[in-house]
Amino acid sequence: MGVVDNAVYVDGCRACEPDSLEDTYELLRDRHGMGWIGLYRPDALEVESSRSPAGSNLCFHG
Questions:
Q1: 4-59 confidence digits (pLDDT tens)
Q2: Which domain of life is it from (predicted)?
């Protein structure tokens, strides 16, 4: 996947950089943060596979 950045922000500060999107979703739930996922030239399958679970606060940049 063309993930070029993956981070969780808490209280406006970059708190961690998870190794996978699954870890990102888990940390968002645990820390009540906002996720930032940067994708480089994703195709339709990559975009679909990176969809967040309902209720997650994510920002995609691509």
A1: 999 999 999 999 999 988 898 899 889 988 888 888 888 887 777 777 665 566 66
A2: Bacteria
E strand or H helix that includes residue 61: strand 58-61
Q: What is the residue whose two structure tokens read 């996947």? A: 1
Strands of 34-39's sheet, edge to edge?
13-16, 3-10, 34-39, 58-61
pLDDT at 62 over 60: no
Residue 47, sorted as left (phi over 0), alpha (psi -120 to 50) or beta, turns out to be: alpha
Please, are residues 35 and 8 in contact by the beta-carbon 8 Å criterion? yes
Q: Residue 4 has which token pair?
A: 């070029």
